[in-house]
Amino acid sequence: MTEQPMVRFDKVSKRYGSLTVLDGLDLDIGRGEKVSIIGPSGSGKTTVLRMLMTLETINDGVIWVEGEPLTHMQKNGKLVPADTAHIRRIRSKIGMVFQSFNLFPHMTAMANCIEAPVTVLGMKRADAEARAAELLEMVGLGQKKGHYPSQLSGGQQQRVAIARALAMRPKIMLFDEVTSALDPELVGEVLEVIRRLGREHDLTMLMVTHQMGFAKEFSDRVCFFHQGKICEQGPPNELFGAPKNERTRQFLHAVLEAG
């Protein structure tokens, strides 16, 4: 990679007691790159995203975002644990959409989208509302801004969640199994919004997904995780078309057989 990666995992490990979830992960993600992470349950996929959002601590290694450490800071030429202000500044570059929507149930779609820009970024309410209206329009929900989550379908709630994450103007977007809680007929509308984001916005995107067809079509690169390590990675046509690793072949065969 010629330029500095947007995200770098440098020998990052995550353990829960004796269980190693991520084992010395090395992974670079380029600016504007779209990377899908696939693999069996328990292989560490979601942990990668949660560590980037600082929802999980790391045991070893360093995560770098735009050349700066995420949970460490430079002090007297050494890396030391970062203070809250440093973590907040770096994390502000990252937005995440969860599989369970995580919308505030007592707030309308519009209020969900302006809460963080106003309270965290200090944006003027009118500016935040204008931005939220634009984003809700972009995800096809311009007419639903006064609706509460309970009045929206799962697919609509997930699209509000995407608009809410974008309202913070992130450079990096993380998607964690964003269609797995949806009825099958609602999956397409959410994937179409993600396609549009990829086309129209200069975002680095990292996605954990079971949607193999979408990963193949959308990604610049696919990483197959197994037992806390990247077993195989490469362009989607190569990884899906002619996987080199036996464990990758087994996984893809099982997933594609299941339909």
Give a structural overview.
The protein is α/β, with parallel strands linked by helices and 259 residues long. It has a domain at 104-169. The chain is 37% helix and 26% strand. The chain contains nine helices and twelve strands. Helix 5 (154-166) packs parallel to helix 6 (184-200).
Q: Fraction of residues in helices?
A: 25-40%
Element string (H = helix, E = strand): EEEHEEEEHEHHHEHEHEEHH
Query: Which shape, going by the Cα principal axes?
Result: globular
Assembly status? single chain
Structural Rg: 19 Å
Residue fraction in strands: 25-35%
Mean pLDDT comes to: 94
What is the rounded distance between the termini? Answer: 35 Å
| Strand order in the largest sheet | 8-9-10-3-11-12
Which structural class is indicated by helix and strand composition? alpha/beta
Number of strands: 12
pLDDT < 50 stretches: none
Number of alpha- plus pi-helical segments: 9
Biggest sheet: strands, sense, closure? 6 strands, mixed
Attribute tags:
259 residues, four-stranded antiparallel beta sheet, 26% strand, 9 helices, 37% helix, six-stranded mixed beta sheet, globular, 12 strands, alpha/beta
SSE diagram, text form:
Blueprint: E1 7-16, E2 19-29, E3 34-38, H1 45-52, E4 60-65, E5 68-69, E6 72-75, E7 78-81, H2 84-91, E8 94-97, H3 109-119, H4 125-138, H5 154-166, E9 172-176, H6 184-200, E10 204-208, H7 212-218, E11 221-226, E12 229-234, H8 236-241, H9 246-258
Parallel strand pairs: 3-10, 3-11, 8-9, 9-10
Antiparallel strand pairs: 1-2, 1-4, 4-5, 6-7, 11-12
